[in-house]
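Our platform keeps sequence and structure together, in a single record for each protein. This encoding replaces a full spatial description with a residue-level series of whole-number codes. We quote a single record here, exactly as it is kept in our systems:
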Amino acid sequence: MKKLLAIVCLMLAVYTTEAQQAATQKSDTVIIELAHTSKVIFTIKDRRDLEILKHYDFQSLFRDVITKLEKNDTTALPGRDTTQNALAAVPAEEANKEDRDDDDDHHYHYSKNDDEWKVDITANRHWGQTWQSFNFDLGTNNWLSNGKFPSSDNAPYSVRPWGSWYVAMNSTQRTRLGRKFFLEWSAGLSWYTFKFEKDNIMMVKDDNSVRFVEDTRDVDFVKSKLSMSFIQISAVPVIDFGDNSRKPRVWEGYGESFRIGLGPYIGYRIGSHSKLVYKDDGREKEKNRDSFYLNNIRYGARLQVGIRSTDLFLNYDLNEMFTTGKGPKLNAFSFGVIF
């Protein structure tokens, strides 16, 4: 896990540097001077269209424009779908990449303003259209007791943020509800790990409750933790000011917009165990698989915030970790990065 986290941090550092360099070189408008008094202005709203433009039949485009000028027709040329014609000249692997990147149908609109012709590249947005992706959440866990961290009261169930990992794998669908409004609904698996601050903490369960006590054996304790796994679903309405059909990935290096979403999630516990690791003439570990009076259902609110190609999440459980009266009153939360 430490190696994985180090790789993720390195990826984020490299991406940030490259993104800053790309931002300084970004150009959305190209002006082409023609003859003595004529010019064409290209306005590109999605830089991924550049690959299509490499194979676009500009000769046909200019024939249309010249024909209208000869007829003294100053009305706008009708919008026409040229995506398929352009992609026909793109190698198969590049065309497939375009299909994976965005399922929007692109249209090219030509208009005349005084002596300037403008070519506008836009996308045909289909309300209700859905795009699927597979996302990973990687972050850290903690929990609150009556709105405070247990460490403030030196409670035995205080946890260390570093080593208390949250990992989730989700199949995520993004459905367009408006021009910049989407619903991201997901289903997948998640894992909670809470690493206790004291390495000798044991979870002791009896007929009435679960208690956190210190192991007094004369051994060298290494770590103690509680782990849980869940099946979960979520539904997060998202406002994406960049109007992206799907969330950009960290490693793709595109995406200029800000996006934010807040919605509910619910999960069902499918496993839980405690683990105590110590050294006593060799490395030893004790793993106890039990429910520990943990609630089978967890539900809460999920906040997602994204800028450029980086998205962060914050999950907060609205219900308590343990069954009422069977354990401490704890509400768990997690935060981290979405890949």
